[in-house]
Design goal:
Helix content: over 70%
Number of helices: 3
Number of strands: 0
Number of domains: 1
Strand content: under 5%
Structural class: mainly alpha
Oligomer: single chain
Length: 148
Amino acid sequence: MQDNRILRQSLEQELALLEELNGLSLIKKDALLKDDVETLETVVRKEEMLSAKLKTVSDECLPQVQFFLKEKKLPVELTEIVAKVRKSAFRFRINNELNQGLIQDSMAMVQFTLNSFRSILNGGIAPSLYGSSGRVHQKSIHLLDVKG
């Protein structure tokens, strides 16, 4: 019984951390959409701190939960909280995948913009990536150096 109570407290702590991380992931999404770098930096710092705490709590819980699941004798009160933890972790993963997509889209836009600047600096000619030999051909262009 004592073990169940300790495990329940650990699972509740894990659930609280996951819920807080979920909230931060939604704030991060808004910051990405609004290009709010300050908020993004703050959220990332908080996420790093909470992720470290979550790892510690999860490392404590996991062996006990796996033991109960292996024995197929997980008490009902623990079954409910384990289901909530799984659901919250799934939502967190989905939110992070969405944020990752937003970041990748932003990076693609930055790359497109840089390529546009390179094209302008090359006299309207798109930069060539391959030479006649088939080798990658990279010409170093400094965007702030107009001498070329």
